[in-house]
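## retry 2 of 3
previous attempt timed out at serialization; input unchanged, resubmitting
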Amino acid sequence: MSTPISTWSPPLPAAAGFDHLVVATPGLRTHVAVIGEGEPVVLLHGFPQHWWQWHAVAPAIAAGGYRVICPDLRGAGWTVADDPGIDRESRLRDLLALFDALQLEPVHLVSHDMGAITALQLTYDHPERVRTAVQLSVPPFFMRFSPKAAPGFRHLPQFIWHRPGTSLRGLFSEEYVARPLSEAAVEAHLAPQQRPDIDAAVRPLTRRMILPESLRLSRGVYRRRRLTVPTLVVFGRRDHPWTEELMNQACRKPQQYADRLEFAYVDHAAHFITDDAPDQVADLALDWFGRS
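## retry succeeded, writing output
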């Protein structure tokens, strides 16, 4: 049953057409925003965002004949966990439990930033549950590390040493967006950080999920595995250092590691590509679903 947005604390940002649900799984009460009817599409938000990241993308995908499901992942949004502990695969286990509860199988999967870590874990470990994948602002896990990629991780120290109460507003600076965000949009993205449990999750998400997975990438774990889910990797052309030139160097011969993987680049977009170019993101996703 849908829950009115006026009953949530802090209040949910406004977005027309969405139903808001709470899905209970062991140890977790996941807030899910849903729009549309048809084959399921699951959108996994980045950091420090939540379901509202997709407020302009999800309706466009739904208009293409899909049921679009936008969960708040553990440590984000309006989802509540009994145990604040997080490890490398906590969100993956949560997502599998959510899929079971909603009887989702298989799905089209779109992910951004930190959400792409969970999406990639799912596509590698449970490919039977994913029809296609669209991955935003994150390189393939089989990439070879290069010194040129180091600036892509420049934001991590502030998360590793995050102090509760410290504003994350600086993440939406011109370094990460191609078009300045309105004050209302920034406030919508950061609203859940008012909750102490969400603010306290910044460190463990970085230290216990991102860093262990990054070590696996650096050791070449995923170059010894095969990605079988058709995957489209999308970057904004102003998302430095993830240029087309770097991807061509770091991800040479993708057919060695993936059954089908393609790249796409969006003009006038940076890291927060769903804010900079929501229509292009939706169009690319719909095209990929149809072609794959």
